[in-house]
Amino acid sequence: MNALSSGDFTQADDPFALFALWLADAAKREVNDPDAMILASVDPDGLPNARAVLCKGADARGFVFYTNAESAKGRELAATPKAAALFHWKSLRRQVRVRGAVTPMTEAEADAYFATRARDSRIGAWASQQSRVLESRARLEQAVADFTVKFVDQDVPRPDYWRGYRLSPVEIEFWQDGKFRLHDRVRFERSGDAAPWRRQRLYP
């Protein structure tokens, strides 16, 4: 679809339907990773921690991503299962902000998605002790070689620590760049997963 006008998106009633339209538009225009989002969690000291991950699903249940549960973000989400996410599509001059609770996906869902990944990526999930100290690049390359030999002539299973997560939003904000920094902002809020959305227009 073409870029939505201000009046179009500010009158939307369903934030998930609007997000799907914006994501489809981004898929046509963004050169790299239109599904990339900045995911922010908090560490045990309450210090925010942000990094880019790929959103691998978005529907009325929330926004899906996968990671190593033993990584920094995995440990942080286990301790405080809440997060914020930001999609920024520079070519479209748009962004979407999301906040809510994070819950683990089922083992079956994680297995199904892991099976779709490239074989080398699946081996990489075994080789990388994500977020932990690495002595050298050579050590990582050796781990990749070791697991390549281990799984030769067989399927590469999902490691137990490689899991899926769903961010179920209670707040979604859509932002469209405007002239002279008079941007258009619309925020959807709800009290819980089953509650209705409340739409508000915000000052830039």
Tags for this model:
Pnp Oxidase, Chain A, elongated, 204 residues, single chain, alpha+beta, nine-stranded antiparallel sheet
What would you say this structure looks like, in words?
This protein has six helices and nine strands; from the N terminus they run H-H-E-E-E-E-H-E-E-H-H-H-E-E-E. The chain is 29% helix and 34% strand. The two termini are 25 Å apart. The protein has two domains: 6-115 and 160-202, Electron Transport, Fmn-binding Protein, Chain A (Pnp Oxidase, Chain A, Roll), CATH 2.30.110; 116-157, no CATH class. It is α+β, with helices and mostly antiparallel strands. The mean pLDDT is 94. The protein has helices spanning 6-10, 15-29, 72-79, 107-114, 119-127, 137-150; strands spanning 36-42, 48-54, 57-59, 62-68, 82-89, 94-104, 162-176, 184-189, 198-202.
Short summary:
The protein is an alpha+beta fold and 204 residues long. The protein has helices at 6-10, 15-29, 72-79, 107-114, 119-127, 137-150, and strands at residues 36-42, 48-54, 57-59, 62-68, 82-89, 94-104, 162-176, 184-189, 198-202.
Low-confidence spans: none
**Count of the domains:** 2
The fourth-level CATH homologous superfamily of the largest domain is Electron Transport, Fmn-binding Protein, Chain A
Quick one: how many beta strands?
A: 9
Instruction: Provide the β-strand percentage band.
Output: 25-35%
Q: What value does the average pLDDT take?
A: 94
CATH class of the largest domain: Mainly Beta
Class computed from helices, strands and strand pairing: alpha+beta
Q: What's the main sheet like?
A: 9 strands, antiparallel
Fraction of residues in helix: 25-40%
Q: State the end-to-end distance.
A: 25 Å
Order of helices and strands: HHEEEEHEEHHHEEE
CATH architectural type of the largest domain: Roll
Roughly how many Å is the radius of gyration? 19 Å
Question: CATH topology of the largest domain, what is it called?
Answer: Pnp Oxidase, Chain A
> Which of globular, elongated, flat, extended, rod-shaped describes the shape?
elongated
Count helical runs.
Answer: 6
